[in-house]
């Protein structure tokens, strides 16, 4: 089992939920019934926040204890970059915490959701390519 297998599986689930949410991003559909989108967003939020906690409490601390200075520096950069993304997602999730708000502001929800999914997708891609690959090559 690789050092990052669990985190990669969590990423796959997060991306699946993001994809499911994207299928509901029609302003007209949301204005009529935002319940399904809100339900998916709730599940996505829960999975993402659990994943972030696991990275913050287990993965990143392990990487920061590496004997390799480049590993520690890359990890510090990823940690620093993640804080604004995490904060933005948390604010987004609170802002869209009920179906009525989504229904009343469907176009804004669509735009903001598309942006947040793009940011999360890019972050996950970078983690896989840069950080997780490095972690798998180490005995962390």
Please provide a written account of the structure.
The protein has 140 residues and is mainly alpha-helical. The chain has a single domain (5-137), classed as Four Helix Bundle (Hemerythrin (Met), subunit A). The chain has 6 helices and no strands. It has helices spanning 5-22, 27-32, 35-64, 69-95, 99-104, 106-137. The model has no long low-confidence stretch (mean pLDDT 95).
Lay out the secondary structure:
Blueprint: H1 5-22, H2 27-32, H3 35-64, H4 69-95, H5 99-104, H6 106-137
Summarize the structure in short.
This protein has about 140 residues and is mostly helical. Helix content is about 85%, strand content about 0%. The protein has a single domain, classed as nmb1532 protein domain like (Four Helix Bundle (Hemerythrin (Met), subunit A), Up-down Bundle).
- CATH topology: the name is Four Helix Bundle (Hemerythrin (Met), subunit A)
Shape: elongated
- Major beta-sheet overview: none
DSSP E strands, number: 0
Query: If you compute it from the alpha carbons, what radius of gyration comes out, rounded to the nearest whole angstrom?
Result: 17 Å
SSE succession: HHHHHH
Poorly predicted parts: none
Q: What helical percentage do the residues reach?
A: over 70%
CATH superfamily: nmb1532 protein domain like
Number of domains: 1
Task: Please name the CATH architecture.
Answer: Up-down Bundle
Percentage beta strand: under 5%
Query: What value does the average pLDDT take?
Result: 95
